[in-house]
Amino acid sequence: MKIGFIGAGNMGRAIINGWLNQHAVTGGEIYLHSAHRSSYEPYAQAQGLHACASNEEVVNQADLVFLAIKPAQLRTVLLEVKASLLRKRPVIVSMIAGCDLATMRKILDQAELEMIRIMPNVNVEIAAGMTALTRNEFVTTDHWQRVVALFDTIGATIELAEDKFSIFAALAGSSPAFIYFFIDALARAGVKYGLDKVTATQIAAQVVQGSAQKTLATTKTPWELVDEVCSPGGTTVAGLLAMEEAGFMTAVIKGIDATVARENE
């Protein structure tokens, strides 16, 4: 299967790197073009990919065409490659934030093309991602299963209604930054009490990883797991109360609210 990428930003590269690391595809199966030649050509050469001279060349070569561009570029790019899309009829896979499949089809004059929308997160690069997928009515079962299988190699996948993509983007797409922020905050607290930053970060990151794994491995709710760690009158309860007094849960929810609002814009 030949896979094309229009755009070569952080998320596109995370997906490509994840697949290459997991041997899900070879570099020779990937065709790439981006607006910044000085950036994508060295990357393509380093990873053994095909660097294409234009977006149209990507479409002409690929069976799957990933749109990894900014929302503001969508109309221009689709109109640029429209003739090639209608002739070649590849499966179009969009990872463009805030752009639904109906909008894409409207730009393409309601053409009956196979379109899939995905929302991955950067952890796909280390095969620990979370990706939501949805499709239009023209996608064949075989093509759908192939795309899902590709993302299963680099993390977990979920089929999600398109009107839920905004909240998914916040909970899975943006939240790694929130979690990195939390890890850094824990590490800085460790530095406050005498640990060096590297050691404190290693401790904090390992604990977050283990806690996430335990959450996924049990049928208990996260709050039940909180209760298991808290002894009556103990240190953990004191810490939790102090964090909640400072607005921890409210801050997290407000962060999600702001992310969803920006996505909807």
Automatic annotation (TrEMBL):
InterPro entries: 6-PGluconate_DH-like_C_sf, NAD(P)-bd_dom_sf, P5C_Rdtase_cat_N, P5CR-like_CS, P5CR_dimer, Pyrroline-COOH_reductase
Pyrroline-5-carboxylate reductase dimerisation domain residues: 162-265
UniProt keyword annotations, A-Z: Amino-acid biosynthesis, Cytoplasm, NADP, Oxidoreductase, Proline biosynthesis
Pfam families in the cross-refs: F420_oxidored, P5CR_dimer
Catalytic activity: L-proline + NAD(+) = (S)-1-pyrroline-5-carboxylate + NADH + 2 H(+); L-proline + NADP(+) = (S)-1-pyrroline-5-carboxylate + NADPH + 2 H(+)
Domain Pyrroline-5-carboxylate reductase catalytic N-terminal: 2-98
A molecular function (GO) term: pyrroline-5-carboxylate reductase activity
EC number: 1.5.1.2
GO terms (BP aspect): L-proline biosynthetic process
GO cellular component annotations of the record: cytoplasm
Compartments where found: Cytoplasm
Pathway the protein acts in: Amino-acid biosynthesis; L-proline biosynthesis; L-proline from L-glutamate 5-semialdehyde: step 1/1
Protein residues bound to NADP(+): 6-11, 34, 68-71
The keyword Ribosomal protein belongs to this UniProt entry's keyword annotation: no
Residue positions binding NADPH: 55
General function of this protein: Catalyzes the reduction of 1-pyrroline-5-carboxylate (PCA) to L-proline.
Similarity-based family: Belongs to the pyrroline-5-carboxylate reductase family.
Descriptive protein name: Pyrroline-5-carboxylate reductase
Underlying gene: proC
